[in-house]
Amino acid sequence: MNIQDTFEETFLALTVNKLRSGLTMLGIIIGIGSVVAMIAIGQGAQNSIASSIQSIGSNLVLVEPGFTRGVGTQVSAGRGSATTLTQEDADAIASQVSNITAVAPESDGRHQVTAKGTNTNTQITGTVSSYPEVRNVQIDTGSFITDENVQNLSKVAVLGPTTSSDLFGNGSVPIGQMIRINNIDFQVVGITKSKGGTAAGNQDDAIYIPISVAQKFLAGNDSVSVISIEASSQGAMSGVEQAVTNLLLSRHNISDPTQADFQVLSQQDIINTASSVTDTFTILLASIAGISLVVGGIGIMNMMLTTVTERTREIGLRKAIGATARDINLQFLAESFTLTFIGGVIGVLIGWLISLGVTQLAHIAAQVSLESILLAFGVSTAIGIIFGYYPAQRASKLNPIEALRYE
């Protein structure tokens, strides 16, 4: 039996009972579609998170207050809740650490803000004039905080576009308008360009004021919530991390690094941590979706065993006229493989459509990669061969005389 004959027989065998063949493929279709979609969504989420983190600045090193819990394990005490970093620490970093372009300390907190009968609860970031350079913030209208504003305790504010819309309405330009934070009047001097983001990472939903004003009137102390440092190059980041760590350990009189009351993180560290989390969830979800592939494979085996029983006389007749055990084995493996291959193609298309739907509805740029498609086809092919092998072997070993007598 040549290859063309094998495919013709396979096509005829599978189309004799179209409904049964379709239902058998359904498990493979659902499994492959789910795996492709889960991997695409996971990769899209990972890229979205990485893009969001990279948008907060380039060559960025962050110093945050934190405490040690257990040997060698450091956890953050929460930005704004710990007071282990001060303005003097930021000044020391700026003057004593080399290979840095700029330093921007922050004093952060959430407060209720009112303006002209409207109000919102948003992030208030007290900072300095170098903040836009370090954190990649651009001004759309007006100006940012200046060094004179910080020195003179000027009550000025720069609004993110989301906050500006919440307080003054869409399309408004509230330069010169007044807002109240903790019953203190601030004059709006600038609006930043939109960057996007979600939750605490949304720089569009924020207000920037001089750090001296935030420390005196909002925080009540000279502590800082985070110190943002821009390294001179990506290659210098690790050296800057180590230099900052050594400097702060010395300033805080800490001899054991595991007992540090602060933590130094690079932008890449944050991306790697976030990627690790999304990778874990992607693998978990894809594994759960993969269970349906096993179920689909069992369905294929069940159908093929049923087919062997139904076609016992046909198998006996073929053997009687010269078909070898290899021919019979190949015939049934071809049928099993064809079912999984067609199911794999349809499953990839469905997974791709699901990914498009998620991209449109959830605003996550789900990405169907070539690797996930190849993986899907590889798995479906393996399932077709593995779960089709036993029925094929059973068919090939039938005694032709007994097969012909089968009723």
Q: Strand-and-helix sequence, N→C?
A: HHEEHEEHEHEHEEEHEHEHHHHH
Task: Give the C-alpha Rg.
Answer: 32 Å
Task: Record the strand order, biggest sheet.
Answer: 3-4-9-6-8-7
Task: Give the CA-CA distance, first to last residue.
Answer: 26 Å
Q: Tell me the number of strands.
A: 11
Q: Report the sheet-strand fraction.
A: 15-25%
Q: Describe the biggest sheet?
A: 6 strands, mixed, barrel
**Helix amount:** 55-70%
- Alpha plus pi helix count: 13
- Spatial shape: elongated
Classification by helices and strands: alpha+beta
Mean pLDDT: 81
Low-confidence parts: 68-80
Annotate the secondary structure layout.
Layout: H1 3-16, H2 18-54, E1 60-68, E2 74-76, H3 87-96, E3 100-115, E4 118-127, H4 131-135, E5 139-142, H5 147-151, E6 156-159, H6 161-168, E7 178-181, E8 184-192, E9 206-210, H7 211-219, E10 226-231, H8 237-251, E11 262-266, H9 267-310, H10 312-320, H11 325-362, H12 370-396, H13 400-405
Parallel strand pairs: 4-9, 6-8
Antiparallel strand pairs: 1-2, 1-10, 1-11, 3-4, 3-7, 3-10, 5-8, 6-9, 7-8
Helix pairs in contact: 1-11, 2-9, 2-11, 2-12, 3-8, 9-11, 9-12, 11-12
